[in-house]
Structure prediction request, 413 residues.
Amino acid sequence: MNYIKDLLNEMGINPDLSVYLANIILVIIIGLLGMAANFITKRVVLRVVTHYIRNNRFQWDNYLLDRKVFHKLSHIVPAVIIYYFSFNFPAYQHLIAKGIAIYLIVVALLVLDAFLNAINDIYRTFDISRSRPIKGYIQVVKIFLFIIGGILAISNLIGQSPVILISGIGALSAVMMLIFKDSLLGLVAGVQLTANDMVRVGDWIEMPKYGADGDIIDISLNTVSVQNFDKTITSIPSYALISDSFKNWRGMQESGGRRIKRSVYIDMNSIGFCTPDMIEKFKKVHLLSDYILDKEKEITRYNQDNEIDHTVQVNGRAMTNIGVFRAYITRYIEQHPKIHSSMTRIVRQLPPGETGLPIEIYCFINDINWATYEGVQSDLFDHILAVAKEFNLHVFQSPSGNDFKNMPSTGTY
Prediction:
C-alpha cells in the first residue's frame, strides 16, 4: 500500500487523492490475484489431480471427483489471498476477517457435504449397502454439521462465543423438536428398519395405503422411494413402514419360487361316477394309467371285504370324474418342468358356492421372473381348462348374452 502511495505521489497526484486511488488499485490487484489463483487452481492443479485419479487403479477416489469435492475445496485459495492482503486495510481488517471466516465456514460445509455424498456412493458399491443403507445416517450427520456451521457463522458475525448460542438453543429444544419432528421420526424408523432388516434397496414391497407396489430404489432419512411397475415413483414416510403394515416380497425372491394360487370352477351338475367306458379311457392316459389301476384294485378290495351290493351304485366306493380330474392335475404339475419340485404342490377342493365347485391349484414355479411366471401360469390353466371336458366336466361361467340368444324360443310372450 505504501509503495503504491509513494508511486502516485511521485506522479504528482494529490496526497489525499492518492490514498483513495491506492486503495482502489490494491483492491483491483487483489481481485486479479484471486481470479488468477482460482483459474490456476481449477485449470491446472485440478486437471492434474483429475488425470491422476482417472488413471490410477483405485475406484473410490473417482467418487470424490464426481461429487466435486476437490472443486469445492479450491474455493479456499482466493479467500487465503484476500486474507493475506487484508493487513493493508487496517480500518477494515476486522470486517474482512469476519467475512472470510464466514466464507470459509460455508466452503467447509459444502466440502463436507460433497465428501459425505461421496462416502455414501462408495458404500453403495458394496453388497451390504442393500441391506444396511447409511443414507439416513449421513443425512443426520449433515443436519448436525449445518447446525454447527450456522452457529459458528452467527457467533462470528455477532462477535459472541458459540457457547452462548448453544445454551440458547437448549432453551428452544422443544421448538427444534417440533421443526425436526419428521427427521427425528425418520431417524428412529431408519435405525429400526436397518437393525431388523425389514427393507432393502431392491426389495419389492406392496403398501396399498400409499399406492406403492414396486421396487425400493432409495432409502433416505425421511422417505423411502418406491418405483412402481408403471414406472411412477411413490414416496413413503420412513416411519410409516414401522407404524403401518406392508408386504415385502423379498422372501419369494430369495426362495427361487413364485406361487401359483388359482382356482378352476366346475359346474356341479357335470360331476358324477365314472362309467366302465370312462375308466377304460382313463387307463390309456399316460399320467393316469398307474393311478387308475391302483385305485381300481383298492376299491375292488374294499367292496369285496365289506360285501358291498353293486346293484345300487351309491353303495360302496367308486371313482368319480372330479376325483380322477384332481389326480390328473396333481400328476400333471408334478411332472411339469417349470413347477418347483421341493415346494408345496396341492390340488384341492374349496367350499362349493353359487359359481360351482372350486378346484384350487397351489404350487410354485421355479422362476421368479414376472413374465416367465405369467407364461407358465397361463400355459398350466390353458391345459386344465381344455382337458376338463375329457373328464365329462363342464367349467362354470355365468351365462352371457350369446347363451340367452341361443336359447330355444318357447313361442310365448
Observations:
- The mean pLDDT is 82.
